[in-house]
Amino acid sequence: MQPGPGEKWFPNVQSRGSNRRNMKQPLRGAIVGYGFIAGQGHAPTYAKHMGNGRAVEITAIADICGARRQAAHEMFPLARVFQDHASLLAAEAGKLDFLDIATPPAHHAEIAHAALERGLHVLCEKPMATTAEDARAMLQHAREVRRVIFPCHNYKHAPVVKVVRSILNEEVIGPVHQVTMQTFRNTHAKGVKEWRPDWRRERVLSGGGIAMDHGSHTFYLAFDWMAAYPTAITAHASTADGHDTEDVFGCTLTFPTGVVSAHLSWTAGVRKVMYTLHGKKGAIRVEDEDVELAVLEAGPGVVAPGSPGKWRFEHRVAPSAWMDASHEGWFSSLFDEFRGALARSEYVGRDAMEACLCVELIERGYRSAAEGSRVLDLPDGTIDRMARPRAPRPLEAPGREVEDLV
Ligand SMILES: NC(=O)c1ccc[n+]([C@@H]2O[C@H](COP(=O)([O-])OP(=O)(O)OC[C@H]3O[C@@H](n4cnc5c(N)ncnc54)[C@H](O)[C@@H]3O)[C@@H](O)[C@H]2O)c1
């Protein structure tokens, strides 16, 4: 659903002044969807903040599943617990600053609009939405009501990914012109057992299979490493018998700066990420927490006639707890960025636009796969504007303090 020409999203916004609060006060947040990622990935950071300097308080939680409401109560005994987001917002919106959305993707858009309409900032799990139209409408709504919308792009906060960024910042391999990205999983991720652990196999809840589940992580890392946004995609997908969503998704993205090829699988023999990044002067290989840097010291034919050249290899290890799917340790750094966006009143920042572009790519990837891997250009508009080469993102020290924030 898009607003018609000249129409605005939800012009009757309530609590418009609520983010004028002194940012030294704790942020008051609520969680909708207290499942695996909320309970294992987000809650520990919130609990840490609540106990130490009170940077954030979780004062309300909604979940449609009784057992998960009980789990939420046990973790946050002082928080008020609701059966759905509508009753939470009706009772609590005036006392909140932000809503953390951690339900399956099909509900993200509806819940985000309801929160924005009530004047709340939104922190939203990936993928931002299950269609590009919905994702664009969420960004548009956030702009209209001057509230932050921020995606949980937590892979950027993995220690090993920060090491890659620091090597790129050192410019030792030169500009990246080619990237391969492999995400191997031996099963689809499971949700909490008390609700529908296999909702990722139900398209109506998930919006798709591994591309919808993992594509965002692949694509936003690719944007950063290629220092650009893609202009075309070709993809293929396969689905094991009886399933509603794909197990395997592969795609090639064309960038103004080069090419990225990605392979994502829920039917691999191992759980692992493997990334390679290539520049003219060297390459970086990532395998979970291991990083190998190859730097070309002498070009072809220099070492010996006809030789391919000579590389110096360096190895680094950045423990990143990849086997723990909650990625709990990465959320604190992500939450600092969310608080930074609030402090700057950056309502629709780069991360939000990239989240929208990720959904656009997933959607186009599915279409390409359905049409025999036809190459599809990226459309005009937002994408066009974002397709300018990006300035490299400065390295952020893990655990940095955000100035002027609690
Ligand atoms: N960033 C990451 O690394 C990461 C990892 C896992 C999951 N996720 C994302 O987090 C979201 C949730 O995934 P999960 O694995 O935690 O799933 P889950 O099934 O464990 O949790 C979902 C919870 O939402 C509740 N719920 C469902 N519909 C609801 C609704 N309409 N209103 C309120 N509550 C509702 C369920 O009862 C359940 O408790 C998804 O968007 C997923 O992609 C992100």
Describe the structure.
The chain folds into 2 domains: 18-155 and 329-349, NAD(P)-binding Rossmann-like Domain (Rossmann fold); 158-320 and 356-386, Dihydrodipicolinate Reductase, domain 2. The protein has 11 helices and 15 strands. It has helices at residues 36-51, 66-75, 85-92, 108-117, 132-145, 159-170, 203-206, 210-226, 328-343, 350-370, 382-386; strands at 27-32, 56-62, 80-82, 98-101, 121-124, 149-151, 178-184, 232-238, 248-255, 258-265, 272-279, 282-287, 290-298, 310-317, 376-377. The strands form 2 sheets. The chain has a 9-stranded mixed sheet with strand order 14-13-12-11-7-10-9-8-15. The protein has a 6-stranded parallel sheet with strand order 3-2-1-4-5-6, sandwiched between helices. The protein starts with 26 loop residues before the first strand and ends in a 20-residue tail after the last helix. The structure holds nicotinamide-adenine-dinucleotide. Nicotinamide-adenine-dinucleotide binds at residues 32-37, 62-65, 68, 84-85, 102-105, 107, 125-126, 152, 154, 189, 191-192, 195, 199, 213, 325, 327.
